[in-house]
Structure formats: structure tokens, C-alpha cells
């Protein structure tokens, strides 16, 4: 199977009450860990590449790594997506360069400017058989060089979504309902603590999601900032020389609930970073004399794979849906 767009994936996900995982990729081990889990679980998959990933690894290397995954996993549909496309030129470069899906992130612009920019990308993308994700509302957190404070973040306004989708022609819409980027999604004072002392964050705004899906029936919704920040990996990092106090993510059951609703794509990056970093830190701590990168990248890749498998089965619900 060649790389696909997300059109069919989202249609099936919407109807089936599950979501497709969109995982950020930056190197070979991350691509392999994710795709091996998706292949074994027969799950549709979106591999996404940010502007920062293209700057780090180079566009061509990333496209060729994903193409290699497509060859290795012929049984599952895989889409290659640009994450947080900052401008028309970056989107065009990815459309021309083999991506099947792009996001144009106009969320920092005014509503009118966001519409105009998104429309321009949609026209170019659709003429080339590529689908487009737009965004309304602003997530807190860090993405590429942009750092949005919690005060500057804002929930998506449901009364804007019909006009945005109609005027832009986007194929899916990312919304802000309380998720945010990174491993510190909530401050401790926004949370309560459970009996084990673990932070419990405030619930996502399912009322906003419901109102948006009522206004856009059948339309695929995207959730960014959806890492759950697994506490086993935070602990692994902290016990092996790291310092990540009070890192907290989105509870898995809330993501599952969103996937059963109109959310068809769930974005995960930070959890991959935590799994990789925790594993490598632990390896170095217990094997201070080892220096062969294969020896520490192998367990890191294996832990990414098992974490992605867990998400496919227990959070996204897309196992067996390829
Ligand atoms: O939304 C941001 C993603 O986690 C990508 O992060 O821009 O550091 O590659 P990055
Ligand atoms: P996390 O930081 O929660 O993994 O979010 C990733 C993301 O939204 C990529 O676009
Ligand atoms: Zn994002």
C-alpha cells in the first residue's frame, strides 16, 4: 500500500467511535517503534513531522524513513502529515515533497486572516490530492519556537466553526478544549492530588466538543496536546538523574471518551520523548561503561513500541481497524 490521505481513515474512525493516532517522528528508531506496534495491532496510522523535525533530520530523510515504513508495513494505511505548518511556503514544500496531509496552523492569526491563509493552503493542497487540517482556538504550551502561555490560550468558540469550515474547505479541524503541548499540561494548583499524591488535572471541556460536533455533523475533529505523560516514565527519568517534577498529562480515559465522540485524530509527541529519554537515562545509569548507540537505542525503541501498542488498544481503540 502506498502512503494514503486521512480521508478514508477519518470516515471509518468517525463511524466506528475510535481515533487514529498521529505520532511525531524525528528519527529512525521513533519511526520503527511506532510502525512496528501499528503493524502488529493492524491499526491505521498517521506519522507527523513538525517544522522542527524537518530542521533537525532533513525533509528527505524523514520522507524516506516513512516510505521505508510503508514498504515494511504493507498491511496498514499510513499517512504522512505536516504538523503545525506555520505558513503557506512550508505547506507547499511538504505537498510538493511527498506528504499526503498538511496542517496549516493559523491559530495565532485573527479569525479572518486564519480563514484566508487556510483557504490558500486548501486550494493548493486539494489541487495536488493532499488533505488539510486547520485550527481554531489556541493551545497553551510549546510548539517549535512558539511558546503560548496559559493566559494567552483560548478555547475554540463553537459559534465560529461552521463559517471556518465552509469558507476554508478544510478536511479536519483541530480544536482547543483544555489539552496543551508538552509534559506540563497543568500547574499543580490547577489540579487536585489523589491518594498516591499524583496530580489529577481538571477535565477536558466535553461540552465544547459536543457543541462543535452538533454544528459540524460527521466532520473529523483533531486533538493536539494529547500526551498522557505516563508516570512510569516520569519516575524512570527522575530516578536516573532527570528532573521533571509534577509533569502531568491528559488522563487516558478522557482521550478514550473523546475518541468515541467526533475526535478522529489524536496527536502524541511528548510521551514518545518521555519513553525514549527515560529508557536511555536508565540504561546509562546502570551501564556507565557502554557507548554503543545501538545498545541504548534498542530498548528505547522497544519501549516506544509497547507504549504505542498500549495507546492503540486502550486509548485510541483503533486496533484491528486497518
Ligand atoms: O506540537 C508540537 C510537537 O510536539 C512538535 O514539537 O516542534 O519540538 O518538533 P517540535
Ligand atoms: P503532546 O505534547 O501532548 O504530545 O502533543 C503533541 C502535539 O500536539 C503535536 O502536534
Ligand atoms: Zn500540536
How would you describe this structure to a colleague?
The structure is a single chain. It contains twelve helices and twelve strands. It is of the alpha/beta class and 322 residues long. The strands form three sheets. An eight-stranded parallel β-barrel has the order 1-2-3-4-5-8-11-12, surrounded by ten helices. It has a two-stranded antiparallel ribbon with strand order 6-7. It has a two-stranded antiparallel ribbon with strand order 9-10. It is globular.
The main sheet comes to:
8 strands, parallel, barrel
List each distinct ligand once. Answer: glyceraldehyde-3-phosphate, 1,3-dihydroxyacetonephosphate, zinc ion
Which bin fits the share of residues in helices?
Answer: 40-55%
The average pLDDT value, as a whole number, equals 96
**Count of DSSP-assigned helices:** 12
Which structural class best describes the helix and strand composition? alpha/beta
Task: Kindly summarize this structure in a few lines.
This protein has 322 residues and is an alpha/beta fold. The protein is built from 12 helices and 12 strands.
Features:
322 residues, alpha/beta, eight-stranded parallel beta barrel, two-stranded antiparallel ribbon, 12 helices, 46% helix, binds glyceraldehyde-3-phosphate, binds 1,3-dihydroxyacetonephosphate, binds zinc ion
Mind sketching the topology for me?
Blueprint: H1 7-16, E1 20-24, H2 28-40, E2 45-50, H3 51-57, H4 59-72, E3 78-85, H5 88-96, E4 101-104, H6 111-127, E5 131-136, E6 141-143, E7 146-148, H7 158-168, E8 172-175, E9 192-193, E10 199-200, H8 206-215, E11 221-223, H9 231-238, H10 252-260, E12 263-268, H11 270-286, H12 293-316
Helix pairs in contact: 2-4, 2-12, 3-4, 5-6, 7-8, 9-11, 10-12, 11-12
Bound molecules: glyceraldehyde-3-phosphate, 1,3-dihydroxyacetonephosphate (13P) and zinc ion.
Residues 24, 83-84, 181-182, 224-227, 267-271 line the site of 1,3-dihydroxyacetonephosphate (13P).
Amino acid at each position: 500500500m502506498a502512503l494514503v490521505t486521512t480521508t478514508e481513515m477519518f470516515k471509518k474512525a468517525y463511524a466506528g467511535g475510535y481515533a487514529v493516532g498521529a505520532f511525531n517522528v524525528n528519527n529512525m528508531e521513533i519511526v520503527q517503534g511506532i510502525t512496528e506496534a501499528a503493524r502488529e495491532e493492524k491499526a491505521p496510522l498517521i506519522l507527523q513531522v513538525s517544522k522542527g523535525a524537518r530542521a533537525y533530520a532533513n525533509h528527505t530523510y524523514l520522507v524516506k524513513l516513512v516510505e521505508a515504513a510503508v514498504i515494511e508495513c504493507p498491511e496498514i494505511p499510513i499517512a504522512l502529515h505536516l504538523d503545525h505548518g506555520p505558513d503557506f511556503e512550508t505547506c507547499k514544500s511538504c505537498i510538493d515533497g511527498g506528504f499526503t496531509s498538511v496542517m496549516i496552523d493559523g491559530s495565532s492569526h485573527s479569525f479572518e486572516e486564519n480563514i484566508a491563509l487556510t483557504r490558500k493552503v486548501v486550494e493548493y493542497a486539494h489541487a495536488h490530492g493532499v488533505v488539510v487540517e486547520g485550527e481554531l482556538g489556541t493551545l497553551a504550551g510549546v510548539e517549535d519556537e512558539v511558546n503560548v502561555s496559559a493566559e494567552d490560550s483560548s478555547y475554540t468558540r463553537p459559534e465560529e466553526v461552521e463559517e471556518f469550515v465552509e469558507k476554508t474547505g478544510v478536511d479536519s479541524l483541530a480544536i482547543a478544549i483544555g489539552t496543551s503541548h508538552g509534559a506540563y499540561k497543568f500547574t499543580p494548583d490547577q489540579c487536585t492530588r489523589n491518594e498516591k499524591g499524583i496530580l489529577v488535572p481538571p477535565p477536558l471541556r466535553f461540552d465544547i466538543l459536543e457543541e462543535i460536533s452538533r454544528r459540524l455533523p460527521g466532520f473529523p475533529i483533531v486533538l493536539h496536546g494529547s500526551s498522557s505523560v505516563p508516570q512510569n516514565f516520569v519516575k524512570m527519568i527522575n530516578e536516573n538523574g532527570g528532573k521533571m517534577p509534577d509533569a502531568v498529562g491528559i488522563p487516558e480515559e478522557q482521550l478514550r471518551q473523546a475518541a468515541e465522540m467526533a475526535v478522529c485524530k489524536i496527536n502524541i509527541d511528548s510521551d514518545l520523548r518521555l519513553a525514549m529519554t527515560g529508557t536511555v537515562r536508565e540504561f546509562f545509569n546502570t551501564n556507565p561503561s557502554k557507548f554503543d548507540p545501538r545498545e541504548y537505542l534498542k530498548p528505547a525503541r522497544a519501549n516506544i513500541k509497547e507504549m504505542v501498542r498500549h495507546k492503540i488498544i486502550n486509548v485510541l481503540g483503533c486496533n484491528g481497524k486497518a
